[in-house]
UniProtKB/TrEMBL annotation:
It comes from Sphingosinicella rhizophila. The modification N6-(pyridoxal phosphate)lysine is found at residue 61. Gene3D superfamilies: Alanine racemase (3.20.20.10), Lyase, Ornithine Decarboxylase, Chain A, domain 1 (2.40.37.10). PROSITE patterns: ODR_DC_2_1. This is Diaminopimelate decarboxylase. One of its GO terms (molecular function) is diaminopimelate decarboxylase activity. It catalyses: meso-2,6-diaminopimelate + H(+) = L-lysine + CO2. The keyword Amino-acid biosynthesis applies. Signal peptide: none annotated. Pyridoxal 5'-phosphate binds at residues 240, 276-279, 373.
Amino acid sequence: MDHFELRGGILHCEDVALPAIAAAVGTPVYVYSASTMKRHVRVFRDALGGLTDPLIAFAVKANPNPAVLATLATQGLGADVVSGGEYQIARAAGIAPDRIVFSGVGKTATEMEQALRGGLFQFNLESLDEAEMLSTVAVRTGIEAPIAFRINPDVLAGTHAKISTGSAHNKFGIAYSELAAAYKRARDLPGLKVQGVAVHIGSQLTSLDPLEAAFTRIGEAIFELRAGGHDIHVADLGGGLGIPYDPAEPEPPSPADYGRMVQRVTEKWDVRLVFEPGRLIVGNAGILLTQVIRVKPGPDHPFVIVDAAMNDLMRPSLYDAWHAFEPVRPDGEDMIADIVGPVCESGDTFAVDRRMGRVGAGDLAIFRTCGAYGATMSNTYNSRPLAPEVLVNGSQWAVVRPRIAVETMLAGMPIPDWVGN
Ligand code: LLP
């Protein structure tokens, strides 16, 4: 459920009419609903109701806008960060250090030091080399580093190959067969405090089966490691639960189904569970508001050319992702069209042969379910300024990232005076 609905024939975000935002800020623009995010936090928390004090660490990569993170911080969420930048933004947005986990295969010594000095709940390490590096940093700074290893359970996540992470062929985690040696080495390294295990097998998962298989493996690991004398009292189960995009597809499992499965599988673990949901919390809390520039005839059906492009929303061109497209003022008629942006690549296509509400030049429309991996993955390809972001809460709204003007981009790219010498 979300708060983007028709009222009086016009799409609103909560109590704000989308044309009002377009008039004030221009298009394309990302619009987020704070009430939708808060609702998803509540739904996820309720789904985990039977667990003792789970840590819900929002995957910052899904939407690192500080106003979004601050909204989630007020709901008690922590953060899963994967870079020094995400760590810094999460802290600036008010996320408590003892609710931050640091993931990723390529943490640098500088990033490790930043998080150690600033404080965090846990590093999720993905290799022994990383453990050695962290140990050096911990000894140098005199701050003990709480760690878990991310286990690669070698399961097929059944999602798009580019967002699957739990197979042995992916770069993530350490193999089950290497666990005992890794934990033993980590225990012997100075400055590290071994406290847990972690797993994350991929994103937009539409079945619980691979998750259950992975968690079962993690359960086995916990008991084996304890038998080896390790004090394992944290299990980070990652994120990845899918959300509905295309109403024609079967609905992914609900948070409640996920919660029941987790409680069943983890019942005897005696650990504090950590979760890293991203998409589930913010996915359908955001839309991309765009204007139709023109409708161009095509061989089979027209091209609807909108002012948003692949640089603003990369998901369709990167993963063939499906995003609903709807006119802001639907007139009850529909049409079949290809929806494309202005960028000079055929890959700049949002939808092919799409049956959708009729739009014409000058009309406003939205792409739905853009709150996760939307603005955060945008770029300035074709020298298109980054789209602004707006946060709505009831009848209040604010620009939480202004449009980056081309002048600002130019000012940041000096031309050396020796050019042409
Ligand atoms: N934890 C870790 C270690 C992750 O790598 C990710 C996502 C998450 C948690 C959050 O996963 P979620 O709950 O959001 O599925 N750009 C892609 C998605 C990439 C996901 C990367 N890792 C997309 O637009 O679909």
